[in-house]
Amino acid sequence: MIRRALARAYWAVSRWTLRTEQPPTDRPGILIGAPHTSNWDFVLMLAISTSVGVRVRWLGKHTLFKGVMGPFARALGGIPVDRTDPSRVVDDIVARVRRGEVFSLVITPEGTRSKGEYWKSGFYRIARATGMPVTLGYVDRTTMTAGLGPTLELTGDVRADMDLVRAFYADKAGFDPSRRTEPRLREEDRPAPDGATGEAAPTV
After folding, report:
1. In contact, 65 and 74? CB cutoff 8 Å
2. What span, in angstroms and rounded, lies between the C-alpha atoms of 183 and 76?
3. Rounded distance, CA 11 to CA 123, Å?
4. Run of H or E residues at 158
5. Strand (E) or helix (H) holding 140
6. Whole-number Å distance between alpha carbons of 84 and 32
7. Chain CA centroid to CA 181, Å
8. What does the pLDDT look like over 114-124, one tens digit per residue?
């Protein structure tokens, strides 16, 4: 309750306006943070999720969890990631879901705050492996708004699913529009075998 009150106080005094749909809170899900162009994205996403009563988890480099910062990072919902073996991340999330944990896993598919060519497909792989819905979170400096959009159930048809994602983010510029990466997975540009849907590979 204290965190939620603080989050609401933040939005009351912030230059940013919260505009959000209510995501499911009775089942685990994935919360996309995009466009990811600034360190301020993390602060805004915490304020958004706390305001709507969502318990968040997020993935961070394992080095962030060493030393004095470790307990603080975990208290904020952090899950350490060893990027030399990204498949273990998927296994860990699947195990948490099967144990009955209810949380929203915050993922920034761009993987970097700089402009890139593709989003990473880890969020898609995790969603398909666990059945978790995907809620589209956003930051848009052009309108000074931030919040959560629709919640999607991914079908396995990568291009069709990503068309919905692209439509939502088409007018969302991020904190720094010059660093925005268009929502597109590398798998969309690979020719799929006849009858295949182009299921995303496990890239976190």
Report:
1. yes
2. 27
3. 28
4. helix 158-169
5. strand 134-140
6. 23
7. 14
8. 787 899 888 99
